[in-house]
Design brief:
179 residues; alpha+beta; Aminopeptidase; 9-stranded mixed beta sheet; 4 helices; 9 strands; 27% helix; binds coenzyme A
């Protein structure tokens, strides 16, 4: 399903070669820390895993702000590549990539389950996604960083590229990184 949506999006953007970005790969790699196995996967739009990822996004990114997802908030998901780190079938971290043209991708919805934060998982998922995007010839990543997460992205090599602005009711900055 996502494949069909994204092929359409690729032809809409006019980016030849973008189709390879969207192959249905699902399991990208797995690793073990202590006795826990971590699977890094792409998430098919509207799959069972997709809805678990939406729950994770809502728990980490919306509910602490007193917000819930509305239908319109999820409308663009079908055109994005959704990545998740999974332990025992449950997503513990996620991020998604929205192509903004042939060279630039916007990362959004970066979230690590609260009890899994501070263990290097955010760093791992961003680094892997950047590697995948670089291999697909993207040149630049941009994102809207919450002010509270600026330090994380600075450590990942992102630079602040805007004045402060408000999104979902809280301060944000646009940040960019050359791949
Ligand atoms: C921000 C977030 C994605 C970071 O993921 P994480 O797995 O907790 O971060 P990591 O453990 O991989 O940390 C990597 C490095 O960034 C630092 N770091 C992590 N979060 C940070 C923060 N909010 N501010 C400053 N530094 C931070 C860590 O100390 C670590 O530094 P080190 O490499 O020197 O040890 C995660 O905490 C989260 O989901 N927060 C709530 C939602 C959110 O703000 N999402 C981002 C929206 S733009």
């Amino acid at each position: 399903m996502q494949f069909i949506h994204t092929l359409k999006y690729a032809s809409d953007t006019g980016c030849l070669g973008i189709n390879a970005f969207y192959k249905q790969e699902n399991l990208i790699f797995e690793f073990q820390i202590s006795n826990l196995m971590y699977e890094f996967k792409t998430v098919d739009f509207q799959s069972d895993l997709y809805y678990k990822v939406v729950d994770l996004r809502e728990r980490v990114l919306r509910l602490p702000l007193g917000l819930k997802f509305q239908k319109k908030d999820l409308e663009t998901d079908s055109n994005e590549l959704i990545y998740s780190l999974i332990v025992a079938g449950n997503p513990v971290a996620c991020v998604q990539a929205r192509p903004l043209g042939c060279d630039t991708v916007k990362l959004r919805q970066m979230a690590v389950e609260q009890s899994w934060q501070g263990r290097g998982l955010g760093k791992k998922i961003i680094s892997k996604v950047e590697e995948l995007l670089r291999n697909k010839s993207y040149k630049q990543v941009e994102l809207h960083a919450r002010k509270t997460a600026i330090g994380f992205y600075l450590k990942m090599g992102y630079e602040i590229d805007s004045d402060e602005f408000t999104e979902v009711g809280i301060p944000h900055f646009r940040m960019i990184k050359k791949l």
